[in-house]
Amino acid sequence: MLESLSISLAALALLVLYQQYRIYGIHKDSSKREELFQIVTENAADMIALVDVKGKRLYNSPAYKRILGYSPAELSETSSFEQIHPDDRFQVLEAAREARATGIGKRLEYRIRHKDGSWRVLESLASAVRDSKGEVAKLVIVNRDITERKRAEEQLEHNRLHDPLTGLPNRGLFLDRLHQLFLRAQRDPAQPYALLLTNVDHFKVFNESMGTAAGDEILREMARRIGASLRQADTIAHHGSGELSPEPMLSRLGGDEFTLLLDGVGDPSDALRIAKRIQAGVAEPLFVGPREVRAALSVGIALSVPGHGQPEELLKDADAAMRRAKALGGSRCEVFDEVMHMRAEGRLRLEADLRNAIAARQFRIYYQPVVQLDTRRVVSFEALLRWDHPTQGLISPYRFIEAAEDSGLMVSIGHWLILQACRQLREWEVNNASGQPMNITVNVSARQFADARLATDLQDALRETGINPSQLQLEMTESVAAADPKLTVTVLSHLKHLGVGVVLDDFGVGSASLRGLWQFPVDALKIDRSLIRDMQSDRAASDMIEVFITLAHKINLKVIAEGIETARQLERLSELGCEFGQGYYFSQPLEAKAALQFLRQQVAPARGTGAGSL
Ligand code: C2E
Ligand code: MG
Ligand code: MG
């Protein structure tokens, strides 16, 4: 604005000066005025030209040389019109015509070629010089080089709409495009689009364990890989017209979330195919400095539906689908449907309720005995969290652990649970006259595991209750362990140093199964109950169990089978040499009192069998 004003003022001043010079040229002071005009034009930063009504250049100021590379002499020979960008020529002609006709120039912006071939942007204002009859005789044109200013403006505009970390379109630009597609679909429902929302699995763990600089590096690499897999040769399958879909728009919503807008995709299977391609594209391990990291993406897909009231609803739907993909173990794609919609609403209520639950003392711990298979002796209890919800009753951890993880509450809940479980063990020991050594097993989530407070929490709990570190085991799932192997090894070594045991939970269903056994210093593995469930009907499940047990024993790990429900399963597991088991066949998870009862009732161990310890 200010710049435009200043160019107008410059043009006006020159015009006045020139008019005086022209009209009063014969005046005795003419040489003074001419000199003054010359001084102003020769020294002005702007390019100043004088042209006659036919467009012939009468004068070019020296600034032309500096800004466009042409000397005034070269300029008067060439037609500067040819150097104007073809798209801008018409408006320049029009402005010149108008200035000649009316004597009033209008401010205009146009591109012109530098002698070196590059484009410069000029802001220009023409003013008419009239002869003694009042006719327009010449035009004084002031041209200002605004190339840098334009570039800065474009950069600012780019920055406003792009994410500085990855250079991708940001949330604002994404929402803008989403709105456009939404409005178009309202006019023409036959033009569908799909939204993919991806989130990096266990990103918080990476970020917290390796630092934010490493986290940033992972995000940049993810963005690069997603982009690369989108550009991969085969075009997106497109139904109907057979035309190619418009370019998909990849953007970063913030944090570890990326979105992809697929215009023209209305079929869930097309969206899924693209999602799978992206997941495959990021699957290779990546290096952050010397560290090898495996990052996976969970993808939620939502398709445009005529019923959507607001474009943001589609984003919410994709988010619900993405969360489901996470809840099902991550590294998956899920497509949003109505059931998920209900769940998404419930989820919001759940998170709000969870925040109150700690203060309102609504958490309970149930204890499930872990039994030594050959003696049937209880060697440990696994502490399992329950939420005694005021209106919904006892809620399974499957329904709230993920929400507690995401909202950051799990670390506090875990802190409470560890202390509580250790106190409970102490109480049983005091009350159970048999004096058998007993262990307690506690599950730790990804966030807890990556949190530096875990070790302090454990030490505090051990100190307060006086129980021996070897009586405490932590259970972590394979997927948590495999997310950041380096961190896992560090934390596990620390736990070993404390004397606390570690069990790999839900073993055999994750992807890194066997590798993890060598990689991580754990004491035992717990075979996932889906394998135990299938072992009778599915040969592969039974074979896998056998392999796991043999392998574990080879490297001195104990084996626990979870989810034993039948005598046949128990028998077969015993045959295979599995030492410990847990499941409804022995007992459901119990309240503390019932667990003590269970302990007291159990058959005393046969002498000489040697006390099995986890
Ligand atoms: P998990 O650690 O694998 O726990 C075993 C789950 O299997 C428990 O479900 C238990 O009730 C169930 N179960 C035990 N025996 C049988 C059986 O014979 N058949 C069948 N079908 N199921 C059996 P629960 O208590 O609902 O816990 C579910 C998961 O929630 C746990 O899986 C664990 O990953 C997580 N969890 C539970 N408590 C905590 C906790 O305090 N902290 C954290 N971070 N996670 C917890
Ligand atoms: Mg467990
Ligand atoms: Mg388990």
List key phrases describing it:
614 residues; alpha/beta; Beta-Lactamase; Alpha-Beta Plaits; TIM Barrel; eight-stranded mixed barrel; five-stranded antiparallel sheet; 49% helix; binds ligand C2E; binds magnesium ion; PAS-assoc_C
Explain what the structure shows.
By secondary structure, the protein is α/β, with parallel strands linked by helices. It folds into three domains: 36-151, PAS domain (Beta-Lactamase); 163-238 and 248-338, Alpha-Beta Plaits; 360-603, EAL domain (TIM Barrel, Alpha-Beta Barrel), CATH 3.20.20.450. The protein contains 24 helices and 21 strands. Strand 9 and strand 10 (291-293) form a beta hairpin. It starts with a helix and ends in a 13-residue tail after the last helix. The structure holds ligand C2E and magnesium ion (2 copies). One magnesium ion binds at residues 505-506, 526, 562.
